[in-house]
C-alpha cells in the first residue's frame, strides 16, 4: 500500500498558522508583512507561478506585490530596483523569480538582495548559515522554500525522529533544490547521497534510498523499479508534457503510477511539493518581518 502525501493539506495547515502570525504582526505593527516578487520578461509558466505566490500571499494576510520588468531590462536597472526594495522599510521579503533572461546574472541579483529580506534563502550568507548550522531552525533562518517544504512533509510522514539514520538519495544538485535539500537531510541525521547527470548506475543508487528526492526536471525519469520497497518518495519535478488534446499536463520526475505499491509514501504532482513551496515562501516572509521588527 502506498499513501499519497497531500501537499494541499500540509500547505493549507502551514498557511493557516502563517496567517494567524501575519495578523498578529499587523495588529502590533500597523501594517501587514510585505512580499515583493520581481519578474523579468513574460515567460507564461513563470507568470503563472508568481501570480500564485501573490494570490496566496493575500489569502494569508500578507501584502504580496508583483513588480513586472521587461525582458530587456538592464542589469543596472534591475540592481536599482533591488536597491529600492532593500531600502524600503515596509518591504520584508524580496523574491527575484528565476531563471532570468540570459543577459542577466541570477547569482549577482541574489547577492544584491539584503540577506534579511532574502525569503528564498538563496543569498550566500543564508546558504552559509544553512551549511554551518548544527540545528536547523526555520523560525530563525531563511531556508530555501522547496527543500524546507519537502523536509516538513518528511517530518510529518516519518515523525520528528524518523529521519535519523535513514539512507537519503537526492537526485539533482542545483543551488535552489538539490544542494539545500541534501544539506537539510544531513542536518536531520540522514546518510545522504547526492546524484546528478554524471552519476554511474543511477537506478542502483536510487534503490538504496529509504528517502528518495527527485529534483531533476525530466518527466517520469525515476521508474518504479528504482524505488526501494517501503521508501518515502518526494517528487519535486514540475514538467509540462504534451497531450493529444493539445492542452498539455504536468508530471513529476517520478513515474508515480509505477511507484504505487512499491513506495510507502509519495508526493503527487501537481498537489505535492509545489504547494508547500509557496506556503514556505509565506512562512519565510513572516519570519523575515518578525526578525526585522526585532531589529528596530
Ligand atoms: N515543486 C517545486 O516547488 C519546484 C519544482 N522545481 C522543479 O524541480 C525540477 C528540478 O529543478 P532545478 O533543481 O531547478 O533544475 P536544474 O535544471 O537546475 O537541475 C537539475 C539537476 O538534475 C540533474 N540531472 C539532469 N539530468 C539528469 C539525469 N539524466 N540523471 C541524473 N541527474 C540529472 C542535473 O545534473 P547536473 O548538475 O550534472 O547537470 C542537475 O543537477 C524541475 O522540474 C523544476 O521545474 C523547481 C523548483 C521548485
Ligand atoms: N526565485 C525563485 N524562487 C522559487 O521558489 C522559484 C523560482 N525562482 N523559479 C521557479 C521555481 C518553481 N517554483 C514553483 C513554485 C510553485 C509551484 C506550484 O505551486 N506547483 C503546483 C501547481 C503546478 C502547476 O499546475 O503548474 C503544484 O505542484 O501543485 C511549482 C513550482 C518556484 N520556483
Ligand atoms: Mg523556493
From TrEMBL:
The keyword Cytoplasm does not apply. One of its GO terms (molecular function) is methylenetetrahydrofolate dehydrogenase (NADP+) activity. Keywords: Amino-acid biosynthesis, Histidine biosynthesis, Hydrolase, Methionine biosynthesis, Multifunctional enzyme, NADP, One-carbon metabolism, Oxidoreductase, Purine biosynthesis. It catalyses: (6R)-5,10-methenyltetrahydrofolate + H2O = (6R)-10-formyltetrahydrofolate + H(+); (6R)-5,10-methylene-5,6,7,8-tetrahydrofolate + NADP(+) = (6R)-5,10-methenyltetrahydrofolate + NADPH. Residues 144-291 form the Tetrahydrofolate dehydrogenase/cyclohydrolase NAD(P)-binding domain. Its EC number is 1.5.1.5, 3.5.4.9. NADP(+) binds at residues 172-174, 238. Residues 5-120 form the Tetrahydrofolate dehydrogenase/cyclohydrolase catalytic domain. Transmembrane segments: none annotated. SUPFAM superfamilies: Aminoacid dehydrogenase-like, N-terminal domain (SSF53223), NAD(P)-binding Rossmann-fold domains (SSF51735). Pathway: One-carbon metabolism; tetrahydrofolate interconversion. Catalyzes the oxidation of 5,10-methylenetetrahydrofolate to 5,10-methenyltetrahydrofolate and then the hydrolysis of 5,10-methenyltetrahydrofolate to 10-formyltetrahydrofolate. Homodimer. PANTHER family: C-1-TETRAHYDROFOLATE SYNTHASE, CYTOPLASMIC, C-1-TETRAHYDROFOLATE SYNTHASE, CYTOPLASMIC-RELATED. Belongs to the tetrahydrofolate dehydrogenase/cyclohydrolase family. This is Bifunctional protein FolD. It comes from Labrys wisconsinensis.
Amino acid at each position: 500500500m502506498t499513501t499519497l502525501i497531500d501537499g494541499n493539506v500540509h500547505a493549507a495547515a502551514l498557511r493557516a498558522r502563517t496567517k494567524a502570525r501575519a495578523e498578529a504582526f499587523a495588529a502590533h505593527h500597523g501594517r501587514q508583512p510585505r512580499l515583493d516578487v520581481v519578474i523579468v520578461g513574460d515567460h507564461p509558466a513563470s507568470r503563472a507561478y508568481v501570480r500564485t505566490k501573490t494570490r496566496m500571499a493575500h489569502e494569508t494576510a500578507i501584502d504580496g506585490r508583483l513588480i513586472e520588468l521587461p525582458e530587456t531590462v538592464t542589469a543596472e536597472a534591475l540592481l536599482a530596483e533591488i536597491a529600492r526594495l532593500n531600502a524600503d522599510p515596509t518591504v520584508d521579503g524580496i523574491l527575484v523569480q528565476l531563471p532570468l533572461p540570459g543577459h542577466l546574472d541570477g547569482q549577482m541579483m541574489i547577492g544584491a538582495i539584503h540577506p534579511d529580506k532574502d525569503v528564498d534563502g538563496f543569498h550566500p550568507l543564508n546558504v552559509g548559515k544553512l551549511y554551518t548550522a548544527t540545528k536547523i531552525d526555520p523560525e530563525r533562518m531563511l531556508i530555501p522554500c522547496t527543500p524546507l517544504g519537502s523536509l516538513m512533509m518528511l517530518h510529518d510522514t516519518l515523525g520528528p525522529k524518523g529521519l535519523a539514520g535513514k539512507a537519503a538519495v537526492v537526485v539533482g544538485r542545483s543551488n535552489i533544490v538539490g544542494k539545500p535539500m541534501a544539506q537539510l537531510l544531513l542536518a536531520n541525521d540522514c546518510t545522504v547521497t547526492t546524484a546528478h547527470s554524471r552519476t554511474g548506475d543511477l537506478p542502483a543508487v536510487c534503490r538504496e534510498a529509504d528517502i528518495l528526492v527527485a529534483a531533476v526536471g525530466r518527466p517520469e525519469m525515476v521508474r518504479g523499479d528504482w524505488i526501494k520497497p517501503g521508501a518515502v518518495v518526494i517528487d519535486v519535478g514540475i514538467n509540462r508534457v504534451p497531450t493529444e488534446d493539445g492542452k498539455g499536463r504536468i508530471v513529476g520526475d517520478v513515474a508515480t503510477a509505477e511507484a504505487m505499491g512499491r513506495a510507502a509514501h509519495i508526493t503527487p504532482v501537481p498537489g505535492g511539493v509545489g504547494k508547500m513551496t509557496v506556503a514556505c515562501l509565506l512562512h519565510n516572509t513572516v519570519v523575515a518581518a518578525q526578525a526585522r521588527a526585532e531589529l528596530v
